Task: inverse folding
């Protein structure tokens, strides 16, 4: 079972998550012979700023804040980059939040479920073989062809279950 719940919910050196994600993205894009342009990379870096899913507007806002003054970030360019990152499997879309999150296991064949904290918004991506088998068998019995599978589970993360929480880590 793949999971990044430890990282999503506990304080850690997040810079390492970001640099690992960018290294994986570069390798993957190289292997698939697609270009991780500076803008695509900037969008990926922005999404990876934390373990909280970010909406498209927030991504544009954040990039505008980070950009050198006077430099305009064009929303359509950002949206196209999001589409690219989705297509490469580098990020996932969380439908219930209409937001995006970086995938910690791109390039590996996995179907996801997310544990999403309704308090701090952190989302942990998990993948369990038993779940995949159950979905596969159920779909097969229904003669249904599965194209994508993202299961979103809402609740409270370990930190937010305690009252007077110091807040979730970045
Ligand atoms: Zn992290
Ligand atoms: Zn993933
Ligand atoms: Zn939480």
Result:
């Amino acid at each position: 079972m793949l999971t990044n719940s430890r990282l999503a919910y506990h304080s850690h050196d997040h810079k390492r998550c970001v640099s690992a994600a960018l290294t994986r993205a570069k390798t993957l894009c190289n292997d698939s012979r697609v270009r991780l342009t500076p803008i695509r990379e900037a969008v990926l870096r922005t999404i990876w700023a934390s373990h909280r899913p970010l909406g498209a507007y927030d991504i544009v806002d954040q990039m505008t804040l980070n950009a050198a003054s006077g430099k305009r970030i064009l929303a359509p360019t950002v949206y196209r980059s999001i589409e690219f990152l989705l297509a490469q499997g580098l990020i996932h879309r969380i439908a219930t939040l209409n937001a995006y999150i970086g995938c910690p296991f791109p390039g590996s064949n996995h179907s996801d479920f997310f544990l999403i904290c309704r308090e701090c918004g952190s989302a942990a991506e998990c993948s369990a073989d038993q779940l995949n088998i159950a979905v596969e068998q159920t779909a097969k019995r229904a003669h249904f062809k599965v194209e994508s599978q993202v299961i979103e589970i809402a609740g409270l993360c370990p930190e937010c279950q305690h009252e007077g929480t110091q807040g979730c880590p970045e």
Observations:
- Residues 14-31 form the longest helix (18 residues).
- Strands lie at 2-3, 91-94, 99-102, 112-117, 123-127, 150-155.
